[in-house]
Amino acid sequence: MYITADLVLDERDIEEKFVRASGPGGQNVNKVATAVELRFDAANCVTLSDGVRTRLLSLAGQRANQDGVIVIRAERFRSQDRNRADARRRLTDLVIRACQKPKRRIATKPSRAAIKRRLDAKTRRSHTKRLRHAKPDYD
User: What pLDDT is recorded for position 28?
Assistant: First the structure.
């Protein structure tokens, strides 16, 4: 299964099982197994680097089990082919997102002028609030 020009997933790491879908579908929903349960063994996939594998399992969240298998269930459509394509597309999107390295955050420090502006704004706000207090009556 082609993900990018550099990355190809082995079909042996992907297992598809067809099950009955819930929801609308008329008589067809009780007879035909149209939902797809796609299982991708990310933990044992040799084409994924360690960094991509870690990010992939993190992005998968609840869809990944303890063994490192990602389970995607697709039952949006009434046909088996469209659900299968949908599950594969969702897996592809997930792997592509995992391939993108997050940008490193560069620690920055506010300038002296920015600190002065912030403190001046706080002083002005404090003064405005102080003017709202009721003055005691000494009659």
Answer: 67
